[in-house]
Design brief:
alpha+beta; Protocatechuate 3,4-Dioxygenase, subunit A; 2 domains; 4-stranded mixed beta sheet; 4-stranded antiparallel beta sheet; 10 strands; about 25% helix; globular; binds benzoic acid; binds fe (iii) ion
């Protein structure tokens, strides 16, 4: 009988190594873990066969994974970036049976404990030159009724395309805030127009993008995370409608429903913008994600 010590090339050609590996998972206590490991094994083995992967190439891949781990710190999460540029995070969002096109990936820049800010207040916490933007949000249930008391975290990159934790010129928590919806489910704040930005490219994922001759840009957007007991946590992003990278987001996060209308008005020759947006929350289990960075 074949076991892992007697397997040879012929056995591999018949796919028996794959079956032997899958069989070795038979005692896994957690059924879901077993299912995921089985599927990963089948697909990874198929990729190794299809490409004729060499041992040297496998070594390169292993060194790459190690470098991803080594590049991850308390302020930067390279592994999330890796999942994102392979489209895995967006795919996992779509996999959620409740996904209706209005949710998006969390990304690596969400921080817990954004400053609680009164509705209508500003999230500009240090000098941030840019075009003024007013955001008026409305959180409703599936029947269209406003939901009071929802905690809404917002975060965005500056007009220079950097989050505050990437940029020494911005103060702590600049362009981040937490709002609580009023009795009608409304919240709002003042800020500046976000800019599109490159995802961090200083690590191995940046090197991979360069090899692939892919640009590293995300189209301009603001992130929203809405949270209230009894409702599914809503994690989303609203994109600026005329960004040049809307159809080539490096992390594949744009869907039609996520494109906003950042409406421009001009007063005394000065451009100002307003985003009005309704977000629907569904009843269900509440959970806060693990913050990718401290
Ligand atoms: C973000 O939108 O903040 C983001 C998402 C994925 C990778 C990098 C940044
Ligand atoms: Fe972002």
């Amino acid at each position: 009988m074949l076991d892992s010590t007697t397997l040879d090339r012929e056995a591999d050609e018949a796919g028996m190594i794959t079956e032997a590996v899958v069989a070795s998972f038979s005692q896994t206590g957690d059924a879901r873990l077993r299912e995921v490991c089985e599927a990963l094994t089948r697909h990874l083995h198929a990729a190794v066969r299809e490409t004729g992967l060499t041992r040297e190439e496998l070594d390169t891949g292993i060194a790459f994974i190690n470098a991803v781990g080594q590049a991850t710190t308390s302020t930067h999460n390279e592994a999330i970036l890796l999942a994102d540029v392979f489209g895995l995070t967006t795919l996992a969002c779509h996999n959620d049976e409740a996904w209706e096109g209005d949710e998006a990936l969390l990304g690596p820049f969400w921080r817990m404990h954004s400053p609680l800010t009164p509705n209508g207040g500003s999230i500009i916490r240090s000098a941030t030159p840019g075009r003024p933007l007013e955001v008026a949000g409305h959180i409703v249930d599936r029947a269209g009724q406003g939901i009071a008391g929802v905690e809404v975290d917002v975060w965005q990159a500056s007009p220079c395309g950097l989050y505050e934790n990437q940029d020494d010129t911005q103060s702590e928590m600049n362009l981040r805030g937490k709002f609580i919806t009023d009795a009608d489910g409304r919240f709002g704040f003042e800020t500046v127009m976000p800019a599109g930005y490159p995802v961090p490219t200083h690590g191995p994922v940046g090197g991979l993008l360069a090899h692939q001759q892919r640009h590293p840009f995300r189209p301009a957007h603001i992130h929203f995370l809405a949270w209230k007991d009894g409702y599914r946590t809503l994690i989303t992003q609203i994109f600026v409608q005329d960004d040049e990278h809307l159809t080539s987001d490096v992390v594949f996060g744009v869907s039609d429903k996520l494109v906003g209308t950042y409406a421009r008005s001009d007063t005394d020759g000065e451009a100002a913008y307003r985003l009005e947006r309704t977000f629907t929350m569904r009843e269900g289990e509440t959970h806060l994600p693990h913050p990718p960075i401290a």
